[in-house]
Amino acid sequence: xxxxxxxxxxxxxxxxxxxACAPKTTTVPTPTTGGATSGLADLxxxxxxxxxxxxxxxxxxxxxxxxQGAGWDYDAVREICxxxxxxxxxxxxxxxxxxxxxxxxxxxxxxxxxxxxxxxxKIVAFSTPxxxxxxxxxxxxxxxxxxxQMKADPNAKIGxxxxxxxEIAAKAYFTGKTIQDFEDFGAAVLALKSSDIDGVxxxxxxxxxxxxxxxxxxxxxxxxxxxxALAFVFPQNSTLEAPVNAALAAMTADGTxxxxxKKWGLIP
Length: 268
Fold this sequence. Notes:
Layout: H1 9-12, H2 14-20, E1 46-52, E2 55-56, E3 60-62, E4 69-70, H3 72-84, E5 86-92, H4 98-103, E6 109-115, E7 124-126, E8 131-140, H5 147-152, E9 158-161, H6 165-173, E10 180-182, H7 185-193, E11 199-203, H8 204-213, E12 218-235, H9 241-253, H10 256-263
Parallel strand pairs: 1-5, 1-6, 9-10, 9-11
Antiparallel strand pairs: 2-3, 3-4, 6-12, 7-12, 8-11, 8-12
């Protein structure tokens, strides 16, 4: 899926962003098991703060029935904490400013379907990737134009989330067009639903999440970019990175990660 490369100025402005963008807290404690899984680090019941947008299904969103956060990120991090003997405290945070916040250690971990990029790796650390995604154009079901036809149509309006790798893919594919940027994908999808725009550049997994939430409203018109690895994010030199990677390896070995990925539609 997501997310964008960084500009150097963001490093200088990090402290200002952190002061101005205090996140809303949506804590969801994860009960400890009384000890870590054999062979893994034991974090001794430590609380770890996990940043999420709560606006990016199926990775994370607010369940309308319960008012609680739900999605792949919640299930995966809870499973990791179960194995490492820690407690996950999820904090809702806007995408804008999240990387300076991670760099400054405001959060212990970011779980938001984040794309691994070389630029990001200069200021944060990544876990082992847990899935690969591709970029698609999501449109209304009645749409008949292909991505190439929309690219050639001067009247076609394309949107995506600002500051993401989706935005980069949109600009690279729809050359010459002004891409309409939205604060989050929920806003972009609403604009598509109301016909304010004609397509949203989004990764295939998130697209399926929004399509499931809006049955019969949207479809995928076609693929426009390939091969983005998604991973958890940590501050550089985080002591949490290695234990999480070990837990992910254990979850891969025993099939738990595959089950979670299938449950939330990350893989078929």
